[in-house]
Amino acid sequence: MKGLFSALLIPFDENGKIIEQGLREIVRQNIDVQKVDGLYVNGSSGENFMLSTDQKKRIFEIVSDENKGQVKLIAQVGSINLDEAVELGQYATELGYDSLSAVTPFYYKFNFEEIKHYYETIIDNTGNNMIIYAIPFLTGVSMNMDQFEELFQNEKIIGVKYTDGDFYLLERLRKRFPDKLIYSGFDEMLIYGAISGVDGAIGSTYNINGQRSRQILELAQAGKVAEAYEIQHVTNDLIEKVLNLGLYQTLKEVLNVKGIQAGTVKKPMSSFDASKREEVEQLVKEFNL
What is the CATH number of the domain that holds 137? Predict the structure, then answer.
């Protein structure tokens, strides 16, 4: 379960329906072109929190069918509706997903005991492994070392997707829990996660920039930090331009330019500004995407 995982993009048409053939093409792009080690399915990059339960299940099904066991699959099933999280977890487990993941429950101010119960309930009802999805800048949920330790006492909680800029906490987690998987969640900070000893990374830009990101990870792990930094500089030049144009919209438009049916984003997100198409075409050429 170590390595580079794409936080999978999901293509939608103008009516918010999944473009199923396009989804298969994006899976192939990640496996065949970006050479990722795995796919993180129905996370933030998949616009998960705007989807119906049936749409989420259909995505899990298509990805599993197209993958056919080639790479590892992680199913993000987190929801503030615990019944839905359990239902999705059971479905993904039946499909053979290698692990579940779940964002910490958000919006309401859940206390730690409630968060712990949430994870234990999903695990108890699925029997599958669990990777905590810690993304405090979006959920408002931050956990300290003692709380991570309490969660990690459950052997089914095998790791954390760590999308946080607190690298002191990351270093402390790595030292205290050498046997747990830690995935870097910020693509633009991959070099720092790699230096800190993460086991891998999960990110949205790996859908188009996976090969370059793998170089960062592997060079840093080999102690070639200066070389890794040079590639991170190029990567961040790309990320900066993508963010200026709109993250998910631009990632999908890059794939559209490459002939992959990546569609558009789901409303209420705004569609890609068609007047910026030439800028995306230039990005593809400039960064050899």
Answer: 3.20.20.70
